[in-house]
Amino acid sequence: PEVKEFLKELPKCEHHLHLEGTLEPDLLFPLAKRNNVALPQGFPQTVEELNEKYKQFDDLQDFLNFYYMGCQVLINECDFYELAWQYFLKVHKQGLKHAELFFDPQSHTERGISVDTVYNGFAKACSKAESELGISSKLIMCILRDCPLQKCQDLVEKEAAHLIKEGKVHGLGLDSAEKPFPPTLFTNIYASAKKLNPELRLTAHAGEEGDHTYVKNSIDFLKVERIDHGVNSVQSDDLLRELSANKTMLTVCPLSNIKLQVFQDLKELPLLKLLEFGVPFSLNSDDPAYFGGYILENYYAVHETFGFDYKIWGDIVINTIKGSWCDENRKTELI
Ligand code: ES4
Ligand code: ZN
């Protein structure tokens, strides 16, 4: 009723969204058909069966297996464009104003698709979202931390170097299976990306299944200015004080944490502790096609669990805007 309208009207920004994670079953099957892609043995055959599987994942890896199988239906530039455009249409109706979007080139280049095919499709959707829907956006390229290190280095220094140099990707991120791939493995790759373009923004998934040292080491070694998930930061009060002092934002993903069994109940999501320590966080959907909700459903779920008043919601939204990687003029427009 009234509070739902309030949450919808808030000028929301999303900082943690994997474009490949917006692949709904009702787009996956038509794309498989159109592109003549044979899905792996044992893959669900219908939208209903696939939705049934998506009801619960055992853990991050169980989800990632489905996520990468889904990626296989994306072949042509128009597939990437369509995927992103469908996402923008959905969140436009939910009051999203600004989106910072992850994509995973290695889940496509391994299948012989060029980085430019992927980038061009996504970038076209982003331009159209800006002009037709008023949604601003930035693309963040992610390294798959469970790929061989040499391939990660080649992505940054060769295949996608032009995108970094020309500022076409605004940020660099690190995702996929967190353990046993600690951030320190990627120290040199992050440094060389930053060297290609000193304006490149840096973030990394940390503290989702890894412990608080993954968060601390991402900051110290990768020089990230933001942490994706980061919920295990609450294992260390020292770390919380540091995040607060430096205004390092955590991009928290409530429904994702439930679906991947990081928490059994949303009540365990440590938002009160983050508020208490003054650690800025945003609320995000992560992989909405897999986790049962887009940005607004994540806001609803948090509201149902925590019942924040208007003042706290206002503070969360203002922190989210301030922590965004858009320019200051855009931030002023949003507030
Ligand atoms: C992801 Cl939830 C999550 N964690 C790590 N990597 C990912 N890639 C897509 N979703
Ligand atoms: Zn993620």
UniProtKB/TrEMBL annotation:
The subcellular location is: Cytoplasm; Nucleus
Give the superkingdom in one word.
Answer: Eukaryota
| Cofactor needs | Zn(2+)
The family classification in the record reads: Belongs to the metallo-dependent hydrolases superfamily. Adenosine and AMP deaminases family. Adenine deaminase type 2 subfamily.
**Which HAMAP family does UniProt cross-reference here?**
Adenine_deaminase (MF_01962)
- NCBIfam families linked: aden_deam (TIGR01430)
**Which protein are we looking at?**
Adenine deaminase
State the organism named in the record: Hanseniaspora osmophila
